[in-house]
Amino acid sequence: MVHVLLGIFLCGLIGAAGWRLFAFPPDPAGAAGLIVAVAGLFLLPAVLYRIVFLLNARYEISASGSLTLRFGPWREVLPVEEIEEIRSGGRIPATIRAAAPGWLEMWHGRVAAEGETAVDWLATDRGQRLLLLVTKRRCLAVSPADPAGFATCLTELSVHGSLEKIEPASIQPPSILVEILKNPPALGLLIGGSVGMAALGAFLTAIQSRLPPDQPFRFDPAGAPTSPGEPSRLLILPLAGGFVWLLNAVLGWWAWRMGQRPSAYALWVVSLIVMIGLWAAAIALVMLK
Fold first, then answer.
1. Does position 25 have pLDDT exceeding 60, yes or no?
2. Which of 14-46 are b and which e, b meaning 16 or more Cβ less than 10 Å from the residue's Cβ?
3. Cβ pair 233, 217 in contact under 8 A
4. pTM surpassing 0.85?
5. Which H helix or E strand runs over 54?
6. Residue 213 near residue 231 (C-beta atoms within 8 A)
7. If 26 and its partner were Cys, which of 177, 183, 205, 288 is the partner (CB 3.0–4.6 Å)?
8. Please, which residues bridge with residue 71 across strands?
9. Distance of alpha carbon 190 from alpha carbon 1, whole angstroms
10. Distance of alpha carbon 186 from alpha carbon 190, whole angstroms
């Protein structure tokens, strides 16, 4: 519920910031609105990604003696007799709880803490509802709504064993988004380009009142201005740069998915170069008298 409310709040915040930016003349408040909108656009995908995982997180115990764990696209099937121990409360090391993803973190996978066995994390909570299922091969973290009832049911089924032969199964589709977010160079390029474009838009919006009403924008081959106009026309620069960044971000994601990481890096580097070039152009235009 927290994630849904946060998602609605971010959508409203982005909408309000966008309306403030375009409904009123450019001013410092509009620049702040642009920064808020960009920050919200960055945070919103993370929240939506987490919501998808939470909505698809469930644990199913079948009468035949199998336990199915689902967490987003991740699915685990375990025969109950493979579960050797169920840990809860103080039997779960504090270091494991501390290393687990927080309520806003979007990744899933293996949690490791110094001196402890690695845990495959399929839980939505690291507090009182957290249980560790220790199997013959690994350790898994789950967080059922009723931990005591869940543990009791598993224990009773494990005593009787499975009614039919159940093969363990593990389906863990690769998450491209998680891979990119965990890759510092890729994340740095994406954040650097987008933040640079947003800062350019905020800068040009904030200085609108200081620019002459006939701000030079186009020039002839000799370098003389040919079409001075409203200073607000300078905002075309960050808008065009934002479009380039978005296009290259999508193409880079596709290239990453196809296994062409050098191509993805090249596209994101181009976005960074475009951002630097637009900053240089904007400063040159603003300094013209």
1. no
2. beebbebbeeeebeeebbbbbbbbbbbeebbeb
3. yes
4. no
5. helix 28-55
6. yes
7. 205
8. 74
9. 29
10. 6
